[in-house]
């Protein structure tokens, strides 16, 4: 393999690793944003459960803007990493590059797997955030309906009681979702640690695979 083409391949690998590191950090922050949104709304809901304040459970406008900004940044990084992976695939299929080079193909597949994992994680976290936001908006609407009913007539206590029980049911469901997200965050951090170990092992294997062979002449 010529020195020029070898340098081109190493440059692509360097770009891929840099983008993967940036994505890893962004996704961790993205997951924390989702968790803080949920926990923040729960605290606001517990603060004064039966007050006459009809403000929605969470004023998440700033977090919504942060969510949109981070989502766009992650999508851009994923697109750039996809482009680098495509260039690596083109390189392995280009003239003058051994098509059966196991080290090259293994490296390319590893970067593809990482891209797939990051893409899946991003879409999953994004869907969770949207679901939490929609649920909080619904619960805020229910709370306003309850308070409006209580302040309007002061009668039909049975209906008010049913509304409050339904509100409690939604709050319990919210607590279960918070616990699930916390477990997912712990799992994600563990996977991140394992991913770092695998990267280190993979790097050492590539170094050994590309190490010049020493031929002893008798």
TrEMBL record:
It is found in: Golgi apparatus membrane. It is a single-pass type IV membrane protein. It comes from the Eukaryota. InterPro entries: Golgi_SNAP_su1. Residues 39-59 are annotated as: Disordered. Its main location: Golgi. Keywords: ER-Golgi transport, Golgi apparatus, Membrane, Protein transport, Receptor, Transmembrane, Transmembrane helix, Transport. GO terms for biological process: endoplasmic reticulum to Golgi vesicle-mediated transport; inter-Golgi cisterna vesicle-mediated transport; protein transport; vesicle fusion. One of its GO terms (molecular function) is SNAP receptor activity. Residues 41-51 have a biased composition (Basic and acidic residues). Signal peptide: none annotated. GO terms for cellular component: cis-Golgi network; Golgi medial cisterna; Golgi membrane; SNARE complex. PANTHER family: GOLGI SNAP RECEPTOR COMPLEX MEMBER 1 (PTHR21094:SF2), GOS-28 SNARE- RELATED (PTHR21094). Involved in transport from the ER to the Golgi apparatus as well as in intra-Golgi transport. It belongs to a super-family of proteins called t-SNAREs or soluble NSF (N-ethylmaleimide-sensitive factor) attachment protein receptor. May play a protective role against hydrogen peroxide induced cytotoxicity under glutathione depleted conditions in neuronal cells by regulating the intracellular ROS levels via inhibition of p38 MAPK (MAPK11, MAPK12, MAPK13 and MAPK14). Participates in docking and fusion stage of ER to cis-Golgi transport. Belongs to the GOSR1 family. Component of several multiprotein Golgi SNARE complexes. This is Golgi SNAP receptor complex member 1. The gene is Gosr1.
């Amino acid at each position: 393999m010529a020195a020029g083409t070898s340098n081109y391949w190493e440059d692509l690998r360097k770009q891929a690793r840099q983008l993967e590191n940036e994505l890893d950090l962004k996704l961790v922050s993205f997951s924390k944003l989702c968790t803080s949104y949920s926990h923040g709304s729960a605290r606001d809901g517990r603060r004064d459960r039966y007050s006459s304040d009809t403000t929605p459970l969470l004023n998440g406008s700033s977090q919504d803007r942060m969510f949109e900004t981070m989502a766009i940044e992650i999508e851009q990084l994923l697109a750039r990493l996809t482009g680098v992976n495509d260039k690596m695939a083109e390189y392995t299929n280009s003239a003058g590059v051994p098509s059966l080079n196991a080290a090259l193909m293994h490296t390319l597949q590893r970067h593809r797997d990482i891209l797939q994992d990051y893409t899946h994680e991003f879409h999953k976290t994004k869907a969770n955030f949207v679901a939490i936001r929609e649920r909080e908006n619904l619960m805020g609407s229910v709370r306003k309906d309850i308070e409006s009913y209580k302040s309007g007539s002061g009668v039909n206590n049975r209906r008010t009681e049913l509304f409050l029980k339904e509100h409690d049911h939604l709050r319990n469901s919210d607590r279960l979702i918070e616990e699930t997200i916390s477990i997912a965050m712990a799992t994600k951090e563990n996977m991140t640690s394992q991913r770092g170990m695998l990267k280190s092992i993979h790097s050492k294997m590539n170094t050994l695979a590309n190490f010049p062979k020493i031929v002893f002449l008798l």
